[in-house]
Design brief:
414 residues, mainly beta, Immunoglobulin-like, seven-stranded mixed beta sheet, 9% helix, elongated
Amino acid sequence: MTSNAFQGAFGGVDDAFVARLNTTGTSTSTNTSTASYLGGAGKDIGTSIALDSLLNEYVTGETFSGNFPKASPLGGGGSLSGSSDAFVTELGPNTSLLSMPDPTPPKALPAAGVRNPVASPSPVGVGSPATFTYYIYNTGDPVAGVIFTDKLTQNATTSASASQGSCGPAVTTGTLTCVLGTVNTSTMTSTSLNFAAKVTVTVTAPNTVLQGANSVGNSAEISSPGGIGSTISNTVVLNDFSISTSLLSKSSTIASGDSVNYSVLVTPTGAGFPESVSISCGAGLPAGARCSFPPPLGATISSMSSGPQSRTVAISTTARVTTTGSLLRHDVGYATWLPILGVGLIGAGITRKRRVLLGTFFAMVLGIALLQAGCSSSSNTSTTNGTPAGTYTVTVNATSGSATRTTAVQFTVQ
């Protein structure tokens, strides 16, 4: 018989026996299989055995023992009705050794004596994900029908993934359930205890810092047909960040075609900010202007774990150029003057007096044509391209995860 047998001693003349062979867990220090006597002072014979989906064993046979071991017998089945009776015994798995302990037990993998769940990172930045990894250990029989229930401690998008089974869709309130199914016995050696299953819960931190402890928390429990385990929890510190600007150029008033530079400072709250932050220009850029972040630093801050970080933003404008339209009109009105001018040319071979008269007439006609072109309002047009003169306010954004912090810069184009 094994040390974890439910009846470790021989009962009498003959006993039935029950053996549960665990083929899912391995151990060099603990027997994860079970072998046990089943009988009283008389002769007891086992004839059949069956297993259900919850790993309960059903043993049938014949007993001659008045003290055959019983627990919660059926009505009238607590004693022999004659010299012998048939018996049916239900033996459930040992579920008491399935646990999700905090801290993790000695020799546990991946680490012994640490908080369970393992929370990371801490601090976490607003709008960024934090993970809570729950480790489940089982030093007893395989346990079927195990359910992991996560309890949200604040309204935040929460999802989960498990090393086995399946988890429900992401939620923002209430609970999130993972159906783990059968959790097998942990693999054990003299120096280590491996986890039997794990569940990783991902919580997206709020976009604003919470009041009070400024933390994001998570808690969960496991349950099986054998009962509900205790609830365990952990928290991470939630940090925010701010953005400010200062003028780097000599003046914020520039000519069109010039640039103006600003320093953008991103400052974490609390002790560091491990997430990356991207800086960009938002609304307010005038026509012909663009925003850039010169190398080598560019527009990305990979981490502020060591404190505030600054980047340079350059706003460049386009020089204004004015283009004037043509003085001559290209329409049918000018074509009507050509035959008249031609008449003047035909008279080139006649008398001197007539040539003088025709020359005078020709000069008058040409003057009228030029006068019409000069007086036309539609011919004196001009177009101006480039950045218009004016005072402009441009927003500058710093974004991490789903959180954005905003400030503004102002400059004048002459």
